[in-house]
Amino acid sequence: MPDLRRDPIVGRWVIISTERAGRPRDFYPAEPARQPSTSLCPFCPGQEQLTPNEVLAYRPQGGAANSPGWTVRVVPNKYPALQVEGDMGREGVGLYDRMNGVGAHEVIIETPDHKDMLADLPVKRIEDILWAYRDRMVDLKRDMRFRYTLVFKNHGAAAGATLEHTHSQLIALPVIPTSVMAEIDGCRTHFQQKERCIYCDIIRQEMSDQERVVAENPEFICITPFAPRFPFEMWILPKRHAAYFEESQKTQFEMLAPILSESLRRMNRTLRSPAYNFILHTSPLHEKTGDYYHWHIELIPKLTQVAGFEWGTGFYINPVTPEEAAKFLREAEL
Question: Considering the domain boundaries, does residue 90 fall inside one?
């Protein structure tokens, strides 16, 4: 019998329809992994002139900007969705509203080695990537035109990646995305009713139940959410309440890096290295949401397609229960 589940934060319903599929092998890639490209890669060391000038780079041994020797490098996107220059230009056009496409669009090049994947990197290198996210968010927060910074990663062509060299992206927006506002509104409503953060309540329940826990350490927990939109979807949450990712401290990044690494490796072992997206959900830059919002990372393997039913209803159909997904992920041999 299919199971209808409601997300307690945004009120979204999902259908858990296990008759359609259910085991990891049902999602193994049908095609062999794409062979590495032999064309010139703009993200490789020695090719720094092929990208815009860097806005941040970590060079343990020092060295000139826009030269080799870096371990993490951040550059403006060569083909940005939004542009830093210009004013907002807000105006009404009859019934409609418009503004100029002002924002920032940056690429975080996660490693100089073209062959490495994020899951393959040493934990300390993943920690450096998290620091790069934080440093860029803090810098962009000074620009009062920007209201939200979205950090995300597309891994694999099926997940939207256009370059093989592992990287993630950051986009600073002049508006708060609708999906973020839906989360914030749900969190605010729960707080007004119960004077508690709903994510903190979820963490307490998941730590008690243990059915959907994939991994945890003293500071973070990785779970499969109760009402997942997608098979093997995972959330990584700080156990201590925190609304702003960019306010995280060194000890927290030291604990976030290993659980992110472990979650990725468990996913890769269970599902034979699928394409995936991850998205960092954090508070808007200048909104006071500290009491009730809780930053987190959503990790979504690209295993199914959103089709007409989902677009028409806002419901999602998921062929794997989160309890089964968590069990498979926990049992993966690392």
Answer: no
Contact by Cβ (8 Å): 325, 228: yes
In 39-104, which residue ranges form alpha helices assigned H by DSSP? none
Q: To 5 degrees, how large is the angle CA 296–CA 233–CA 119? A: 75
- Mean of the per-residue pLDDT values for the chain? 93
For residue 1, tell me if it sits in a domain. no
Q: Does residue 29 sit within a domain?
A: no
| The pLDDT of residue 88 | 86
- Cα three-residue angle 205-206-211, rounded to 5 degrees: 130
Q: Which parts of the chain have pLDDT scores under 70?
A: 19-22, 30-38
pLDDT of residue 124: 97
Q: What pLDDT does residue 31 have? A: 54
Contacts 24+ apart (CB under 8 A), 246-251: 246/133, 246/134, 246/137, 246/138, 246/141, 246/282, 248/130, 248/134, 251/219
pTM above 0.85, yes or no: yes
Contacts of 191 (CB under 8 A, 6+ apart): 197, 198, 291, 292
| Burial of residue 2 (number of CB atoms within 10 Å: 0-12, 13-18, 19+) | exposed
The count of structural domains within the chain is 1
Find the DSSP H helices in the chain: 123-141, 178-194, 198-209, 250-271, 308-313, 322-331
Domain assignment of residue 31, yes or no: no
Q: What is the CATH number of the domain that holds 204?
A: 3.30.428.10
List, for residues 277-287, the tens digit of each pLDDT value.
999 999 999 99
41 secondary structure, DSSP code: P
Residues that are catalytic: 167
Which structural domain range is residue 296 located in? 16-24+43-81+98-331
In this structure, what token pair is assigned to residue 307?
Answer: 């089709």
